[in-house]
# Entry
Amino acid sequence: MKDDDRKFIFYLSAIFLICILIYLTRGRVKTRDTIYKLPVENKNILVIGMNVIITENIRKKLKDMDINIDYRQINEKDIYGWNLLGIEIAKNYNNYDAFVIFHSGDTLTYMASSLAFMLENINKTVVLTEKNYYKAVKLALEYRIPEIVVVDNDSILRGVRIKKINGKYISPNYPELGKINDEIVLKNEYILQYPIGPFKFIPIQPEKHISVIKIFPTIDENYIKNVISSKKIDCIILESYNKSQKLNQNILGLLGEVTKSIIVVNVTQDYTNDDSILE
# Structure
């Protein structure tokens, strides 16, 4: 084969691969921010008040944004109310571009985490907020973020990672997803990519029993035995130390045995980004 023929085949192959890449990405060989960004026009957003009253004053301010907003009201504080919220989103999933939940502050952290597990493979923005109504709607209007997020002050946070301390929501073990003021700046590398599978709603099962064990230096092995010996427990959440304080080997042995029959989830008590204890 001549050199000219080899060059021709090489260039032809390169062009073929580029065409495949453009097809697979639908021409979106750009930043992930561009993919998340949405045109503002003709958006339909469902706003749900969860244990808060959506006042006429709030509606008037949001009406000035000149977008299509529908409203729902759910007033249930127990776990069944959480399922009602999930059901409301699921049954309207194909009718709206995004969902905004105005939520009371007492259980918002639990609600955000619950939704993250109830709404599987979402590819639309679901944003919760306690008080930043305008910013939450603005985020839902301008961006499609495929996960549950919380807006608090100027922070955009992953819903399943938040804690509330001194009246402020923080994400101690995962970076913020972005900032929102006059402009929205996303940290794209920390945001989930769009799911491959179809959307699925998985309700919470109230009959499941969960035990939380907080590890402390003088914890007694008998205490662990008493907890794990219960026949009613379906899952144990273990709050352990950071990497500099390893668990007692006997306790690890006990937990190792119980994992054969129930789920044990290990989380850290340390409010830093160092989660190597979970490795």
Notes: Residues 5 and 175 are 52 Å apart (CA to CA).
